[in-house]
Amino acid sequence: MSDQVIAQATRSINVGSKSFAAAARLFDEHTRQSAVMLYAWCRHCDDVIDGQVLGHGQLEGDRSSGEERLAILLELTERAYAGELMQDPAFAAFQQVVQRHGIPPKYPLEHLAGFRMDVQGYRYQTLDDTLLYCYRVAGVVGLMMAQVMGAESEATLDRACDLGLAFQLTNIARDIVEDAQIGRVYLPADWLEEVGIPPDEIALAHHRPALALLAARLVDLAEPYYQSASQGLRDLPWRSAWSIATAHGVYRQIGIEVKALGAAAWDERVSTSRAQKLQFLAGGALLALASRRMPFRPRPSALWERPR
């Protein structure tokens, strides 16, 4: 494995997501390398579609020729699976991860299908439409990360997918206004109609009180997915369970703060402080330990089912 590939992937995660970078340090070395390289591919694809640099500059990003950009990503992904020598560091990293862990192509291709929804300006009429998007851009990432950590059972993979859904629902709630400013609306149109917000007016300040109600609804919707995901920790290696439990706590807290801030939630980007991250680091260790003694409960049938 090339040191250059690992170094590039590590830089990608350190700049693109400080929260995930901190959680990834808890993995054992083998798992951390794979997780970081998989993240680098996901980050790269997102950046290419949105014209960003390591997740930054969303409002200024160049989103022209999205279909062409997506076609290139699809081609490179297929070539990586075909075993070609990949020159792009993100795809070289990706190729090593999928080969090492036997990740099936349906997952990364489903992830790219989520970006196609962005490129084509998909209209989210119902909650199921929004959850499909969440599955594609985050649920399948959870599935791939679970395989990196050695998970094999369908029950554990389901819980990993649930965590991805919870993370994305939280992200949507936090970024509603910023996304709307670039023409992306992930809230179900049905919900917007209920509170009288036209889709092209989401970013307007006078809609913030009504928007806060919908953000709270998203946060509440994410909660049973967070609870379901915690059940999957028991089947992960200890250090992996600790890492995921820490990220679980950080993202869940972001949702809690978005809900608590109400109409002020978008005055500045909601994040967790260093002190809070340290708190969740300790809490994650306790949750990972407690999960070993948890009776495994059936996954709630009311939750959205991932495609098989």
From TrEMBL:
Residues passing through the membrane, by range: none
Pathway: Carotenoid biosynthesis; phytoene biosynthesis
Cofactor: ATP
Molecular function (Gene Ontology), one example: geranylgeranyl diphosphate synthase activity
PROSITE patterns named among the record's database cross-references: SQUALEN_PHYTOEN_SYN_1, SQUALEN_PHYTOEN_SYN_2
Membrane among keywords: no
InterPro entries the UniProt entry points to: Isoprenoid_synthase_dom_sf (IPR008949), Squ/phyt_synthse (IPR002060), Squalene/phytoene_synthase_CS (IPR019845), Trans_IPPS_bact-type (IPR044843), Trans_IPPS_HH (IPR033904)
BP GO terms, sorted: carotenoid biosynthetic process
SUPFAM superfamilies xrefs: Terpenoid synthases
Keywords: Carotenoid biosynthesis, Transferase
PANTHER family in the cross-refs: BIFUNCTIONAL LYCOPENE CYCLASE/PHYTOENE SYNTHASE
Family according to the record: Belongs to the phytoene/squalene synthase family.
Protein's UniProt name: Phytoene synthase
